[in-house]
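[stage:ingest] chain + small molecule (alpha-D-glucopyranose)
[stage:ingest] validated
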Amino acid sequence: MITQFIYGHPVETFAVTEKIPVADHEALRRFSRKKGTVQVFSCPLDEDAVIYGLGETMRGINKRGGRYISFNYDDPHHRDDMPSMYGSHNFFVVDGAETFGAFFDTPAKVTFDMDARGEGVLSVLCETQDLRLYVVEGESAYDVVKQFLGSIGRSFLPPLWAFGYGQSRWGYKTARDISRVAARHEEKSIPLDYICMDIDYMDRFIDFTVNRRRFPDMAGFAAGLKEKGLHLVPIVDAGIKIEPGNPVYDEGVREGYFCKNHEGTDFKAEVWPGMTHFPDFLQERVRRWFGDQYKVYTDCGLEGFWNDMNEPAIFSTEYRAKGTNPDAERGDPDQPERHIADFKDFFHRLDDGREKSNYEVHNLYGAMMTRASGEGLERLLDKRYLLFSRASCIGAHRYGGIWTGDNASTWEMLRQNVYHMPSLNMCGFLFSGADTGGFGGNCTRELLLRWLAVSVFTPLMRNHTAIFTRNQECYRFRDPQDFRTIISLRYRLLPYLYSEFMKAALRQDMFIKPLAFDFPGDGKARRIEDQLMVGESVMIAPVLEQGARGRIVYLPEPMTEVRYNREGFTCIDVGAGERTVMTPLNQVVFYIRKGKLVPVGREASNTSELDLLDVELLGSGTAYEQYVDDGYTRSCSLERCVIRRREDR
Ligand code: GLC
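[stage:predict] done
[stage:export] tokens:
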């Protein structure tokens, strides 16, 4: 059961799509109080209570013991105690003597103190007195999450090719660079579905332009790649360069589409292209205009995009020169505070007529950019599109996926990728993933192989790195066939992964879960954070340590252990309990639950070669419900499921 409590006059966030009964918030008086301009909620926690959720936040799957701040922020130093990341996902579940969920539906800054002092108290501080609070009561943590997912609308549904392997690097500058990446993958028989184009494809980093010298014929280039089954995925940044004569800029100024400064003129902030204006995505008419601009790309045959710098990221502003950082000088430990003045300096005009500083509605900005693009692409294309964004909040999951921003080539970040996946799923972001191999720093061969073995199971599987790092394409390393083996597994598993993703999305369920959700009575499973359930049949237990030749795996029940290597699959039945499993770098081991099946297909060099129906079944079950479609048609429904039976048993 979900109950809604309304405080003051909340800003419309569009996060919840279902009609939820409203109760008098006086009923919560015991847990909530006004304090100046903020609203504080608190409740006691019993000793054993676990806290799930909060989407893109640091630390483990159990959020207890940490302090997290919802305030979208561009900071690549993803340390465990970093309070804010690029997305703000204000839903959590307490699983203890009492089990309940809470969603703080506000675009303002929210601080979640999840018993950081260890005194058995959870408290939430909202920097606004205008918000909606949804309280979800259920039988179990998983039940609470399912009810919540049912209230926020269905996940974005990407096309099949978006589940293929993607190669990216900030630094590919020309069509020739990209052709070379495609050719090297082909030469080494490494499967590939798309190549991302970072800011250098543009004319001086100006959105909705193409550098004609570097890409003389974008449409022809894209068509040529598509014939080989490859897609191009350009980046789009939030800010529009101030440059009279550029029709997008001119129209934006003329129509008043940009956010204003406190003097009432268009706010100026420096990002990649130099000084820019920020479109006021919170207005419907601006979203429509911005979404229509993607026609420049769709006219070239492009069907996939990544939206970036939309927290928004700001290098300097008309009021603050680069590098001046008053809060940092004061030694404020909460990094987002550094740019607080910037966000207080620019303003949105809401569709309800109110004016709000960006600081007050901050976490909606990136989400509304995603919505603008998603709705634009729905108008422009007659099929599903790929879209993933850096900034987000709950609600944006209906229009696009997300990636978890500028991580680094470290083992810690690989582990964090594992922790993020179930938490993001709980908040609606089924289509997500990290920069495989790491964005900052130099990736080693071993780290990339182990990271790929995790990414095989995440919906977004993209290798991306920064311009100043070592080349990170698989073919740059010794024995590229080892990389090929791991990526081939992704394609062989796609009949299962695609089916499970689509079923989860259509049923408004999770795709990747913590073990505790599937084995609720198992005390050990409840504490395990480095093993995950992927879909209804699979458990993964990836190797996350440098130098490790294997690891200890906990099996809550007897399962089928599947080992994949160059020769294919080998399955053995294993009992419940702990087990030491050796996994060489060029192999992947995963588990199939008792009584379940996994359909696996043949190898493919990209998804256009894949036949979702040509499968063999692994595991001990007798039947599997497989979702199958053409991979791009928009109308998706569970009626497309076919039952596959294990005839040889
Ligand atoms: C940001 C993005 C990163 C991209 C870079 C250049 O840091 O997060 O993915 O490569 O900008 O556009």
